[in-house]
Amino acid sequence: MTRLLVIGGSDAGISAALQAHEIDPRAEISVLLADEYPNYSICGLPFYLSGETPDHRQLAHRTAFDGIDILTNHRAVSVHPATQTVDVVRGANGRAETMRYDHLIIATGAVPVRPQGLPGLDLPGVYGLHTMGDGFAVQSRLMGSEARSAIIVGAGYIGVEMADALRHRGVDVTLVSHTDPVFPSIDPSFGRLIGEELSRHGVRVVAACTVERIEAAGNRRGLTVSGSGGFAATADLVLVATGVRPDTTLAATAGIALGPSGAIRVTQRMETTIPGIGAAGDCVETWHRILQRSAYLPLGTTAHKQGRVAGENAVGGARLFAGSVGSQTVKVFELAIARTGLREAEARTAGFDPVTIETETWDHKAYYPGAQKLRIRVTGDRRTGRLLGAQILGHWRSEVSKRIDVFAAALFHGMGVEDLNDLDLSYTPPFSSPWDPVQMGAQAWMSAVKTGADKSFTADRPTNLEKGTQHESP
Amino acid sequence: MTRLLVIGGSDAGISAALQAHEIDPRAEISVLLADEYPNYSICGLPFYLSGETPDHRQLAHRTAFDGIDILTNHRAVSVHPATQTVDVVRGANGRAETMRYDHLIIATGAVPVRPQGLPGLDLPGVYGLHTMGDGFAVQSRLMGSEARSAIIVGAGYIGVEMADALRHRGVDVTLVSHTDPVFPSIDPSFGRLIGEELSRHGVRVVAACTVERIEAAGNRRGLTVSGSGGFAATADLVLVATGVRPDTTLAATAGIALGPSGAIRVTQRMETTIPGIGAAGDCVETWHRILQRSAYLPLGTTAHKQGRVAGENAVGGARLFAGSVGSQTVKVFELAIARTGLREAEARTAGFDPVTIETETWDHKAYYPGAQKLRIRVTGDRRTGRLLGAQILGHWRSEVSKRIDVFAAALFHGMGVEDLNDLDLSYTPPFSSPWDPVQMGAQAWMSAVKTGADKSFTADRPTNLEKGTQHESP
């Protein structure tokens, strides 16, 4: 009987355990958690803090699983491949115990990046947002002391979601972004629209500002954040959301190799460099299906997929992780934004000859009530016509994220931009057009590349492709 | 300079003309329309009649196109391949003229099926719903004479949409369905839920009833519809929506071969059996990508795709129509229903060993407000694990139609059910889960087939293939 030990009880760890049990119900499976929150949706913390998800327990769909032993407050402190054992400390002041494994899966996740040399990071009132504990600390501050204002440092996924969440709760929010516009993981034309949406909902957006110092606000309550360009603002709390890095301490000290990105190196079978030890989730490098190399892409969706593969292989399977294409989506107030694949600069670095064309169209037939404009950016390779990536921005009811999934499925199969027109997508006037907006974006790209209109296209400005093209659906 | 003549100015005809112009801007392109409504969205008629689309002109996104000569009220009456000419009658009482072509595209569409031998079909107050003219006639009846009640014969796409539309307008609606439950193009478990949704919104649903007679209502105003099982009801108007058949008169008399379904036989290049004559849309047979044979599948989406291919090839292109996978969707009151691929009985007839598993799950993370249940039916081949089809039913805001599109993209590429888990679909709690419901449906299928649970899953298995024209153009 295989004894499978999983270190980590978040997305990757739980998925691994579940799939191992599914494939081999007789396997003896234990999941070690450093805290007491197995299977909690960390992605849900902004909604807990906004008040939309009132009870934190809602964030866990399930916390107990048939045939899986969930060991909360069990912190793995060292892994010994030679003896196939893990030293585990139980509780805050527990003694180390030793647990044996036949197969081990490391799913230790990520830890927040702490901006190097930023003074004041450890002051009371400065928070990260990566664990349930972080969430409780922020919640407690918001509830307990009439916190009415917040400064968010970082305008990526967590930063913009938290700006939305805190405004939902009536808190004054200043969002400080290193980049201009905010939200650098999509193209600037969309970033600007996100910035406008944030401003429209009362967020003070400070772009192109490098935070230099956090300090107690002198004789006033709260904290003062100072940055480049003379920026200074004071608020009751500061949230630092400047990304994550892989938590690899345990793996590295066990002699497991890391990759160039600093995350654990794994095969597509989710095996580490030590036999019998797999790894998955935010602590590992991810195979990128378009780049055909590994990269660091910490995402819940990927963690689940990798965990499932690692779990299956731990009990004798031979499954491969098929790779990420970089699909992501976020809701910011009334907007949904999604991306998949490569952006133009990423594609150029990877050796492609990318062209990006932006199209604006309706999310469904304009004659049916409630139609909203969608913006679609398609990136393809000029030489081969291959689809390389796409970005969509629109109303949050415009099925933006499932539309990016059509692009994601196309990318998965290496389709050409033109090939998107071959996909038999569903249509009824309340939901789409006979050519879905995804296909209109593809047609606009084809037309622009054919006519050379792309050569006059500057990345920040949508071209006017209205005339002479077919991308607006008859 | 190529002279391209297109007969028909609806989806296929306009798409053909647009793409021909896109590929060869010097081509001389004329589109002949029997009526005066080029590029009108016939799928939009229910929304015009519900009042949601107040002005019928909104149904046409554009009616004029650079480089394309739109000839309204030009009825093609005969095609002469030997001389490459078409005889055309202009207006109601016009004389025949002859027009020359280098390349001809026939896009004459479909005509409503008239239930054979049904007395009363031609009485005043009995309507079809296939042309703008039909729409105006119904509209006029609804507006002019205080029509307060309607009987709809046929509970397919048009029937259920019109039930919704007329209820929206406050009309009493009786929907008579030959099948039980209604809406036979999806599985009965979903059909029953659609029936309940119709009833919940005040539609009187009469299932398993064959209409036998329509007659004037004696001394009362209106029409009486009688049917099997003693059914009789009287209403101000009767709408007959019992499917369509290809309009092939022009093609057949020109010597163009029809296929076994009675529609025009075409290659994947959308060429008929006569050189220089292409055809597309509801008048032709459609290549079914999963069945790997042609079938009659009249749909707006397909018509656009076929038209685009026919148009490109007419001006020297060499494009192939990649085939339909049978994607369709409809909104009925608060529900969205979508299907793609084969249903179980269709798959069995085609030689597969199909298994269908139904899963219920949330459309997005249940902790985020507004979560709704989705039902997903996945059909796969037991022997090979290949995905064969899927059906989804849920709230109309649950991105049902774009979720079916993920299945459609997977079907296009011949993916296995298990492979769906490899797709890198986007996630944020307001829109999905780390495994999208599409993937949860796939996992449930895998699990059921593995454990043999599918062998006891018979309750909702469709008993036989619906015969005739189950697929109406939305």
From TrEMBL, chains A, B:
<protein>
    <submittedName>
        <fullName>Putative FAD-dependent pyridine nucleotide-disulphide oxidoreductase</fullName>
        <ecNumber>1.8.1.14</ecNumber>
    </submittedName>
</protein>
<comment type="similarity">
    <text>Belongs to the class-III pyridine nucleotide-disulfide oxidoreductase family.</text>
</comment>
<dbReference type="GO" id="GO:0050451">
    <property type="term" value="F:CoA-disulfide reductase (NADPH) activity"/>
</dbReference>
<dbReference type="Pfam" id="PF02852">
    <property type="entry name" value="Pyr_redox_dim"/>
</dbReference>
<dbReference type="InterPro" id="IPR004099">
    <property type="entry name" value="Pyr_nucl-diS_OxRdtase_dimer"/>
</dbReference>
<dbReference type="InterPro" id="IPR050260">
    <property type="entry name" value="FAD-bd_OxRdtase"/>
</dbReference>
<keyword id="KW-0285">Flavoprotein</keyword>
<dbReference type="InterPro" id="IPR016156">
    <property type="entry name" value="FAD/NAD-linked_Rdtase_dimer_sf"/>
</dbReference>
<feature type="domain" description="Pyridine nucleotide-disulphide oxidoreductase dimerisation">
    <location>
        <begin position="328"/>
        <end position="432"/>
    </location>
</feature>
<dbReference type="InterPro" id="IPR023753">
    <property type="entry name" value="FAD/NAD-binding_dom"/>
</dbReference>
<keyword id="KW-0274">FAD</keyword>
<dbReference type="InterPro" id="IPR036188">
    <property type="entry name" value="FAD/NAD-bd_sf"/>
</dbReference>
<feature type="domain" description="FAD/NAD(P)-binding">
    <location>
        <begin position="3"/>
        <end position="307"/>
    </location>
</feature>
<keyword id="KW-0560">Oxidoreductase</keyword>
<keyword id="KW-0676">Redox-active center</keyword>
<dbReference type="Pfam" id="PF07992">
    <property type="entry name" value="Pyr_redox_2"/>
</dbReference>
